[in-house]
C-alpha cells in the first residue's frame, strides 16, 4: 500500500503540492484512480481522484477506516539537536518508523547547535510515516531551553540518559509505564548541574548500555527499548 498525507483531508480533500506532484506526475495516477491517504492522527482514507492536477490533486473520500491501532503507551523524547543536521534528521526518520509520539529539541549547556528549524524535520517525519505505513504523525516541538523544559515536565516516568554509578538500564525501569519522557543530551553530554537539576525535578538517571553513543544513536536506542519493553 502506498500512502499519501493530508492532515485535514475530511475538510480539505486536496493533496499537498508535493504529494500531488508525486501522485500525478510520478505515479501517473488519473481521474477515478483510487489512493490511500492518512491524516496523521490514526485515520486511513480510501479516496478516488476527481481532479488529477499536479499541484492540487483533488480527491473524494470513499471510506474511512481507523485501521491503525495506536500503541498503548506515549513516548516523548527530548533531544539536543546535533551539530550535523543530517544526524538529527536520521533520528527523526528512524524513531517515526519505530514509533514515537512527541519530540522536543532542547538547548543545553553543551549544545553545539543554537537554533533548529522544525519545518524540515516535520517533512522528514511525514515521509517516514508514509514509508513505514503508519497513520500517526509525532508532534515536533521548537527548540526549548533545558531549564524551562524540565521545570514544565510532567510525565508518569521521566528519564535522563547518562553514564553514572547510580544509573539503571532503561529496559529494567520502563516496564508497565504508560507515559515515558526520555531526555538525550548533546555530543558533550549533560553537565553535572543539569543532571542534578533533572533529578531534583523527578527525572531518573538511566543508561542505554555500556557503549558511548552518538546523540542520534542514543535517541534511536531509547526509542527502540521503550517500544520493545512496553
Automatic annotation (TrEMBL):
<dbReference type="InterPro" id="IPR046887">
    <property type="entry name" value="RsmE_PUA-like"/>
</dbReference>
<dbReference type="InterPro" id="IPR015947">
    <property type="entry name" value="PUA-like_sf"/>
</dbReference>
<comment type="similarity">
    <text>Belongs to the RNA methyltransferase RsmE family.</text>
</comment>
<feature type="domain" description="Ribosomal RNA small subunit methyltransferase E PUA-like">
    <location>
        <begin position="15"/>
        <end position="62"/>
    </location>
</feature>
<dbReference type="InterPro" id="IPR029028">
    <property type="entry name" value="Alpha/beta_knot_MTases"/>
</dbReference>
<keyword id="KW-0949">S-adenosyl-L-methionine</keyword>
<feature type="domain" description="Ribosomal RNA small subunit methyltransferase E methyltransferase">
    <location>
        <begin position="74"/>
        <end position="226"/>
    </location>
</feature>
<dbReference type="GO" id="GO:0005737">
    <property type="term" value="C:cytoplasm"/>
</dbReference>
<dbReference type="Pfam" id="PF20260">
    <property type="entry name" value="PUA_4"/>
</dbReference>
<dbReference type="InterPro" id="IPR029026">
    <property type="entry name" value="tRNA_m1G_MTases_N"/>
</dbReference>
<keyword id="KW-0698">rRNA processing</keyword>
<comment type="function">
    <text>Specifically methylates the N3 position of the uracil ring of uridine 1498 (m3U1498) in 16S rRNA. Acts on the fully assembled 30S ribosomal subunit.</text>
</comment>
<keyword id="KW-0489">Methyltransferase</keyword>
<dbReference type="GO" id="GO:0070042">
    <property type="term" value="F:rRNA (uridine-N3-)-methyltransferase activity"/>
</dbReference>
<keyword id="KW-0808">Transferase</keyword>
<dbReference type="InterPro" id="IPR006700">
    <property type="entry name" value="RsmE"/>
</dbReference>
<dbReference type="Pfam" id="PF04452">
    <property type="entry name" value="Methyltrans_RNA"/>
</dbReference>
<dbReference type="GO" id="GO:0070475">
    <property type="term" value="P:rRNA base methylation"/>
</dbReference>
<protein>
    <recommendedName>
        <fullName>Ribosomal RNA small subunit methyltransferase E</fullName>
        <ecNumber>2.1.1.193</ecNumber>
    </recommendedName>
</protein>
<keyword id="KW-0963">Cytoplasm</keyword>
<dbReference type="InterPro" id="IPR046886">
    <property type="entry name" value="RsmE_MTase_dom"/>
</dbReference>
Amino acid at each position: 500500500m502506498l500512502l499519501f498525507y493530508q492532515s485535514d483531508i475530511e475538510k480539505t480533500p486536496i493533496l499537498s503540492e508535493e504529494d500531488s506532484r508525486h501522485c500525478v506526475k510520478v505515479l501517473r495516477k488519473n481521474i477515478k484512480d483510487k489512493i490511500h491517504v492518512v491524516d496523521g492522527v490514526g485515520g486511513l482514507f480510501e479516496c478516488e481522484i476527481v481532479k488529477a492536477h499536479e499541484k492540487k490533486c483533488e480527491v473524494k473520500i470513499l471510506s474511512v477506516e481507523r485501521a491503525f491501532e495506536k500503541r498503548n503507551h506515549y513516548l516523548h523524547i527530548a533531544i539536543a539537536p546535533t551539530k550535523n543536521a543530517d544526524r538529527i534528521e536520521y533520528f527523526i526518520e528512524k524513531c517515526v518508523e519505530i514509533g514515537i509520539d512527541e519530540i522536543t529539541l532542547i538547548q543545553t549547556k553543551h549544545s553545539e547547535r543554537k537554533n533548529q528549524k522544525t519545518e524540515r524535520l516535520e517533512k522528514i517525519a511525514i515521509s517516514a510515516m508514509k514509508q513505514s505505513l503508519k497513520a500517526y504523525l509525532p508532534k515536533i516541538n521548537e527548540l526549548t531551553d533545558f531549564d524551562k523544559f524540565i521545570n514544565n515536565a510532567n510525565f508518569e516516568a521521566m528519564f535522563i540518559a547518562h553514564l553514572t554509578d547510580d544509573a539503571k538500564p532503561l529496559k529494567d525501569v520502563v516496564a508497565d509505564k504508560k507515559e515515558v519522557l526520555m531526555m538525550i543530551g548533546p555530543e558533550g553530554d549533560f553537565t553535572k548541574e543539569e543532571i542534578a537539576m533533572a533529578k531534583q525535578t523527578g527525572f531518573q538517571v538511566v543508561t542505554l548500555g555500556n557503549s558511548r553513543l552518538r546523540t542520534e544513536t542514543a535517541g534511536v536506542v531509547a526509542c527502540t527499548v521503550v517500544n520493545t519493553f512496553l
